[in-house]
Design a protein that fits this description.
heterodimer; A: about 900 residues; mainly alpha; Sodium/glucose cotransporter; 5 domains; 5-stranded mixed sheet; two-stranded antiparallel sheet; 34 helices; 9 strands; elongated; B: about 120 residues; alpha/beta; Rossmann fold; 5-stranded parallel sheet; 5 strands; about 45% helix; about 20% strand
Amino acid sequence: MLPAWLILGAAFGYLCLLFAIAYWGDKRADAGRSVVASPYIYALSIAVYCTAWTFYGSVGRAASSGIDFLPIYLGPTLVAILWWQLMRKILRISKSNRITSIADFIASRYGKSQLLGGLVTVIAVIVITPYIALQLKGVSASYQVLSYYPEIVMPSDQRGDSILQDTALYVAALMAAFAMLYGTRHIDATERHDGMVAAIAFESIVKLVAFLVVGGFVTWWMFDGLEDIFTQASMRADIAPLFTSVGSTGYGGWVTLTLLSMAAILFLPRQFQVLVVENVNERHLDKAVWLFPLYLLLINIFVLPLALAGLLVFERGTVDPDTFVLTLPMLDRDPFIALFAFIGGLSAATGMVIVETIALSTMVCNDLVMPILLRLRWLRLTERGDLTRLLINIRRASIVFILFLGYLYFHFIGGSYALVTIGLLSFAAVAQFAPAIIGGIYWRRGTRSGALIGLSLGFVIWVYTLLVPSFVRSGWLPADLLEQGPWGVELLNPYALFGLAGFDPLSHALFWSMVFNIGGYVLVSLVTRQSPTERVQATRFVEAYQPAGGSERGNQWRGQASYRDLYALAVRFIGKVRADRAFEEYAAGRGLNLAKLQVADASMLQFTERVLAGAIGAASARVMVASAVQGENVGLNEVMAILDEASQVIEYSRQLETKSLELEQASAELRAANLRLKELDRLKDDFMATVTHELRTPLTSIRSFSEILHDNPEIASAQRTEFLGIITKESERLTRLINQVLDLAKIEAGQFDWQIDAVEPKAVIEDAVAAVSQLFKDKEVALGAELPLSLPAVTADRDQLMQVVMNLLSNAVKFSPPKTGRVTISAAATAGGVEVRVRDNGPGVLPEHREMIFEKFRQVGDTLTDKPEGSGLGLPISKRIIEHFHGHIWVESTPGQGATFAFIVPTAPARAVMDAAK
Amino acid sequence: MKRSILVVDDEPNIVLSIEFLLKQAGFDVRVARDGDAALAAVKERMPDLILLDVMMPGRNGYDVCQTIRAQPGGKGTKIIMLTARSRDIEQEKGLAMGADEYVTKPFSTRELVERVKRLLGSAAA
């Protein structure tokens, strides 16, 4: 029997050794001689991938389903080839963005989304905590098995023991202490934990050597080499198929497992921690690409031989294959080999727990607790200067919390199916991070909403198709859920969702979760828009290889600039007065003498940047200062940020442009209105001038002849009569003119008293011809009328219609040559109206004047010094009258061959005609 | 010898009244109904004084005034512009074109005759 003190002592001693190594590693790092800055240490630390679950479980799995254990190692081996591309890019991005965890990585890519970071953290904690419990279970079970040495007794569930007697509790406590000591030394989570990495690398060596020693011992001590084992196994009908056929899951299962482990090696929080956060040098990846697969090969060499050996020597069913690594040496009564195997398993467990806890605590602290605390205003966190203590304490509390949670999980539901399968389940869960991450670094269009939706959908499907069934199998949920689906809906069966049957549960779950995850991510990304921050971050991530984009520049200025350049820069943007004041204050605060200052240091650069940022925005300020600094190149990120600012400015100026366009339009309208007003004003002046002229002309004759008659009482009677006749005529002319002006004013003001009725146009024309016949006789102009027998009645004011006809006739006679003049008036019914035409053989009207002559006082020739014919009001009044009747008036003319003035007035409705006929 | 006067206006009644008044005052009076007729009459014999209406169809008064002044011997004759427009600018324009006086319609017949006499008298002196 191995005494408990020996086992515990060995375990405790081993853990103390770990502390010592970590302490030494940190000391070396503090002294500037890092032990972990080596590709070999890096590759070994990646081997934290191999946990107690794999240390013991691979053999167990091989014993039950042959080479089925292999995909878990094939995936990482395959993906190691991709590291060259994928991991290098993730490394580049993480270094330049100071990424602290996988949650931080995803959140940062999608616009530094706190929601996304929180979601990833919550998923990780839910998924990884049982995984930690599994490690504790491994330690606890192996301790139990070993404690019965030399008897081989299978471990029972722990429930009977009190918690305080539980080895696992103390192991967990020690690991918590270790994680707190070596995982939270610095507040900057991006800083490497040299001691921790050194310890992890050491653990990887221990578990590998332990496994190889056990394997070698069993193969060559207990058996006569590999050939002996395989020969014996091939003779056993129940064992032989294990290594001659693909395992129970089939090829589909192989592909699934390979894919899952590919995702796990990249995206498990602990793998991200050692691969990315703890990476010292990007070039270490080159060696890790083949070193790590080699490690996997070595640790797997003896899996199958051990499994076969266990099956050969133990009676079937008496010994759990998961304990073969431990029980085979025990069977041979070799306590120290067994103890070494136990230490190997312990190292595999502790390595995983330590790294995983540190990684999770960083996520919980940075992506879950701090965002919430910072939102609680009453804590006034934002006002506190130094938050480092608080942050470290939160991380330490998170470590204790996560480990205690893991322990409780193990203690209370340790034996359940749910726990045993959590290893693969957690692989499937972290695979849900893959679309958001891989899409995020290769596809610029991926949006925050897309990532949120995809991740949420994938996780929900994972819960439903894997977690829920594992609960059912553990007996916590009714079993018929898996047989008939919930509420008997077969389509919702967690093992055959939407009728998809025929897959093993893992493949089925991976298929649906990825369909929803990738589908949601891509579709939502395509229909949503990125915020400016998202766009900048997307570019930083996707174009991580672009020059400067991936450089290690944080916010600190490294170069130098001349003070003169900086000063000139500041003056350019904020003016001399403010620049002088700003720099003087700065210099006074630091006791600098500006007059003698030549070289500006980093702090002054930052000060200048801040001063400029107030004026031109942060991103532009950075670029402007960079332009003054030697050795600083303007990076793509900065340019992107400027473009972003610029696009906002462009948008703003576009709005301004629209506004100014509107203003321009308005002012153009105003200008046009103003022109129109001026034109109207001029027309009014002209109108007044012309009216005045028209009034003065008859007035002149009247006054002259009145004075002549007054001054010459002896004038001859015939002459007196003639002069009096002139006075009368000119008075009539004056009256007529005044009436016309008044009529026009009334019509224009809408105050004319229209007598609208059905009017017989023929009678109107005949009356008008009779009224003006004297004018024609005076001038000896012939007047002919071509009228049909009858014309339909029109809707009009009879007197005004007659006035129009008279106006046209007197106009015609005025322009006709005396004696040879000939005027013809004709009328005809047209569609819907009556057309009246007055034709003369005068000089005609030029085409450009045909509209103008209908405007008031717009005499042809336009200069008012030209003598107008008549009052100039006849045609404008006629036009307004005809338009009031809803008719139309126009002139047709060939210059030199006379003119024809014509108008159409609409016919009256039938009933009105009847009335008119009465 | 009678002083000769040319009356130019397109309004027959105004021409008639001025012709009556000036003949009564003992002048030799000729009349023209438009600008072209006026220039023809001037070409035929330069009058001592012209009463010239501004607003006429075709060639207006200013034009006629300018043309006469440009002719040989055209500077010696007196020109009185007649206009129905009283705006100052018209008056200035008329004077600028070489008119001696400017009379606004409707005018006082007595004053018109006085003006004519005065102008011809000063010319004679």
